[in-house]
Structures are given as C-alpha cells and as structure tokens.
Amino acid sequence: MIKEKFRKLWISYIIQSLMAAIAIFIIVSVLGKERVVVISAMGATSFIVFAMPKAVSARTRNVIGGHLVGLASGAIFYFAALPYFVGYPLAVGIAVFLMVALDLEHPPAAGTALAVVVNEVSFDVFVAIVISAIVLSQCRYYLRNHLKDLV
C-alpha cells in the first residue's frame, strides 16, 4: 500500500533518497573502505537528515554533538579492561545517558559508540566520525529550505 503522502511528494522521496546515497558515497569515497564499519551509523544519520530534516535529532548540534558523545563513550570502554559483554552495553548506555542529559539526542550516535568500542580508537576514527557528521549535518543545513519531512 502506498502512502498518500508519497503520492503527493514522490519526487521529493526520490530526490532526497538520492541525496542520502550521494552523501554516503562522498563520505565513503573520502574516508575509504577501511573505515566503513566505524561510520556505519552514518547510514542511519543520513536517513534522519534526508527523510526527517525537521526532527530535533536532525539538527546540526544533535548530529555532530551526538556522534562526539558516541565517540567518547565508545573510546572510554574501548580502553577499559572490561569483558565485551559488559563494555559494549555500557558504551551504548552511557552514550544514551549523555545524549539525553546534554540535550544532544541523535539515535544513530548510539551505534557510533558501539562501532568504536568494537572496532578501534584512533585519530583516523575520530576524523572519520567528525567529517561524516559534519558533511551530513551541513547537507541538511544548506538544503533545509528544500528538504521535506517524508515520514
């Protein structure tokens, strides 16, 4: 069944979906294949930015701040000497707590925390996450007058 909203905005659905794909293409092209696992949460961020641009979690502050919180939380538990079944959930839980407490809610950033604690912490990972968050948030910022909420 096709939503009535889709019937009215089908061109926006196509264009904004293509924009999401292009943004992720640029990020992956610049950062390389090696960092794709670490920036996997950016796929979810691209959904929020291009399908729900008016949502609070799509704001620049939330996208960048949320991913920085996820990065910090993941890094803390990456270096902690805890078993994975304790460290991984704590990284996500602390990221969620901090995002809510600091008013930086961005759900995909909980995935950033998990990706960092599972994979690695390095300057390259920090740069990959920050660049990705900036690119996506700036896409939303500069296209804000053209993007429509699709959900």
Which range does the strand content fall in? under 5%
The mean pLDDT is 92
Assembly status: single chain
The residue ranges in which pLDDT falls below 50 over 5 or more consecutive positions are none
Shape: globular
Structure in words:
The chain is mostly helical. It has one domain. The chain is built from six helices and no strands. Helix 3 runs antiparallel to helix 4 and helix 4 packs antiparallel against helix 5. The longest helix is centred in the first third of the chain and has 28 residues. The radius of gyration is 16 Å and the shape is globular. The model has no long low-confidence stretch (mean pLDDT 92).
What topology emerges from the helices and strands here?
Blueprint (H helix, E strand, L loop, with lengths): L3 H28 L9 H11 L8 H20 L4 H18 L6 H11 L4 H21 L8
Provide key terms for this protein:
0% strand, globular, mainly alpha, 151 residues
Short note summarizing the structure:
The protein has 151 residues and is mainly α.
